[in-house]
Amino acid sequence: MLKQYRATLTFIAIVVFLISVGYAWLGPVRATSAVLSGLTLAALYFLLGAGLSLIFGLMDVLNFAHGIIFMIGAYIGYSLFGNPRLFTNTLPLILMVVAGALVGVYIGRPLRAWEARRRQLPADAPPLRIILSRIAPSVLLALLAVGLLFWGTRGFPLNRLIAFEPTATGGAVPTAQAQEPLSHMAVRLVGMMVAGLLLGPVLVREKRLEARGPFWKTLVVSLILSAVAAIVLWTRDPAERFMLGLSVDVRFVLALLAGAATGALLGVFIETVFIRSFYGRPVTQLVLTLGLMFIGVELVRAIWGKEGRPPMAVPSLFAESCRSPNLIAWLSERCSSIDVLGRAFPTYRLFIILIGLVILIGVWILLRYTRLGMIVRAGVQDSAMVEALGINVRRVFTLVFALGSALAALGGVVAAPFVGVYPDMGGAFQLQAFIAVVIGGMGSYIGTAVGAIILGLARAFGDVLVTGGIPLPWTEQVLRASPAIARASTVLIMAIVLLVRPAGIFGQKE
Amino acid sequence: MGNILEVRDIHTFIGQFHILQGVSLEAAEGTITAILGRNGAGKTTTLKSILGLTPPRNGKVVFAGQEIQGRPAYEIAAMGIGYVPENRAIFTNLTVAENLKIAERKRGDLDRKANFIFGLFPDLKRLYRLPGGHLSGGQQQMLAIARALVPDNQLLLIDEPSEGLAPIIIQELMEAIRQLSERVTVLLVEQNFQMASRLAKNYVIIDDGRSVRSGAMEDLLRQPEIIRRYLGATI
Question: Alpha-carbon distance B124 to A436, whole Å?
């Protein structure tokens, strides 16, 4: 009986220990606000860790690119919130590349099949023919496509588009004349489309050389994408006025949705293009996702600049600069902070905790009560057996990758008004999320939540130690830790937990 | 009655190792066919190759008139092949109910088959809400077989059902397999020759990755020297 609940008891013991030590040293007022700060961090760690844990549990992939998705989600949400002009100018270009590539992949299959046949020469073929046969047309196409991509984006005023001035109310004043005239943009669109067309044959997988589905379907999808691109571009001015005319709250919700959607799409992209070919090869995956992490950071630096940005404006519910005495008064007063035992605590951080809680329960319900959840739980244990039951487990992998990435990106947007956005935020939060997942037990969903809470609390108390210090008993001295020690404390906790339970608190022994 | 499954000269590699070097067998519809052979002869790999979990590099697998080699395992399974692996591979953190439910291919499969399944394994009804990990070895084996019976499968691949179980449980399982074979064709890998010989109508012997002999079980029982040579067993 006791054995069955050992993990839960361990968790409760650690949390009770942390909190009671905190209360004893800090007194109830400072300790309560430290606990709330800790839970805020825990919510963010959890949003990142949930995906890490699900992806590791189901696919055995240590996804170092997860923090990137968190960060890109934050940047996308931040930009959409304050600077829709960036999207109305760049989105059409991206859509056109995709539209071109779809058709290119379709036409490219026979080309690649021909290329593969051409490479099979008789052994006694003349040397020149052998050399020529090795120069694959697809390589030339790739070079041409990349060249066109550069040509098409040459002189694109990205810097001016990015350099917007956020205002106090969360609106934005985009830099004057940031946009190019429509005729210029139209030429770029055509360039992108052709580049996509050329890129298509390069993206064809060698294993899938036969044509799939009728051509008109591909064409219709491609045309729809192109039409959307054109509409977005030609309505860019009214769309921007409309977007910035919306209330802060609506734009905040849109930012959350756009961030999560971008995360999901990125997840699908990373899984299908990069990870899928390397299941069962952990070292390759590790190097691959690490590489993606560096590329992602540099990409964000290249687009949005090396400098971070100040915190995003909060929704109106958290905007008034006042202090509400309690939660009910806050709902009508909409204050930015709330009275907790005589100390002010920012209400937006309570909102972060709430989001974490809602996602925790939502995903738990998904895992526990839906067929997809059942398949995921079974797959965590034995994905080959799930496949042997007739279930397309690869599709479930992609779905879970998308879900985990969407949660991470959502976390990024939620974090933007709290910590701002900066190119290192992905790495910083990912490290903590990894530690949380390891403490909780790799692959355990509840374990991740538990690890995040422990880690969040430890960080918050550590910060108190650094900023305020703790009066030592019986002396006049104050113990004050250095920031490095506060940061190291999380790793210390991980080491202790792993020494006692090598598989983590909720980990299953292999 | 025709053959629901025909395997023709398959070769399977696992990494660099050439595990199956020419296995051929057939399973006549509505019968039990036993795959016999020593440890490491390639019996389990044969089942996995049929299902596509370790896809054969050469050769043909014909199931219900269609060539299935090279297709993804989930497609092959969904055509109507149930798999009961040797380690049982039930999902220990799912309840018995969920272990059965996850095998559904159409909504309501489990409800339709419930009477049949619980008729074969009354224990499972009692344990319905328990996590699979709480079941005994015999009960887990029953659950693994029951799981393969939930969808409308035409062929079951059962690997070593008697492994590590008490004789009285083995008797119970044998009876259940005999009963279910009235509905579905069975390809049975079994070390326990006594059990295999009593259940199966036909046999295939695999030795060193090759199918070396096949035929009717009653003929094999008249050739003790073959049994000794390939199986190391005596009747």
Answer: 38
